[in-house]
Specification:
200 residues; mainly alpha; 76% helix
């Protein structure tokens, strides 16, 4: 049975894991700074959509494959690391505040949703949440639905803060050298996420 205590525990867990730094939030900050908050909204929607689909996938048993086939964890690490390094490289290419006619564009909803499947932090968040809070027996799917819903409700404002921070930083990035330094910092932070992927 889903209790109030369980809902509160999942809510706290979802908030802490969503609002803390990670690939998604670093990318949202960079997107907010380079493209503005409004153009970053599809990226935000894609993260929430991708996390929801990932929650359902783990509920269906996809997460158990990592236990049965440990090599899949290594594949995820390699693919995720390579993609994060590519994103870091792309951040270095942003040399000016982007507008609709400028080169480069923010993540689409589909791109951001697909990224969750190679985002190691997303997998850790979802597998940990389902392993810790899903119920056995008849209440299983109700609890998976609860976890998915809470992540959508709590996660949305939690990650929007990062895009909003990027938008706020935008006013200070009018000079080429300042924006360049900001993007280098974001690129380094994105690349550093690779190190956390390989920490056991």
């Amino acid at each position: 049975m889903i209790s109030l205590e369980l809902i509160l525990a999942v809510t706290l867990f979802a908030f802490v894991t969503s609002v803390t730094p990670g690939p998604n939030n670093i990318m949202l900050t960079a997107s907010g700074a380079n493209f503005g908050f409004k153009r970053t909204l599809p990226h935000i929607a894609g993260i929430i959509t991708g996390m929801g689909l990932l929650n359902v996938s783990v509920g269906l048993g996809l997460g158990a494959l990592f236990t049965q086939f440990p090599v899949l964890q290594q594949v995820l690490r390699i693919v995720g690391s390579a993609y994060l390094l590519w994103l870091a490289y792309k951040l270095l290419s942003f040399s000016a505040i982007s507008d609709k006619k400028a080169e480069g564009k923010p993540f689409s909803l589909v791109q951001a949703a697909a990224f969750q499947y190679i985002n190691p932090k997303a997998w850790i968040m979802v597998i940990s949440a389902n392993a810790s809070f899903s119920l056995m027996g008849d209440g299983y799917w109700w609890s998976v639905l609860m976890i998915t819903t809470i992540y959508a409700v709590v996660g949305t404002p939690s990650i929007m803060v990062w895009a909003g921070f990027g938008q706020y930083m935008r006013q200070f990035l009018g000079q080429q050298n300042v924006l360049r330094l900001f993007n280098i910092t974001m690129a380094v932070l994105t690349a550093l996420c690779v190190g956390f992927i390989w920490m056991d």
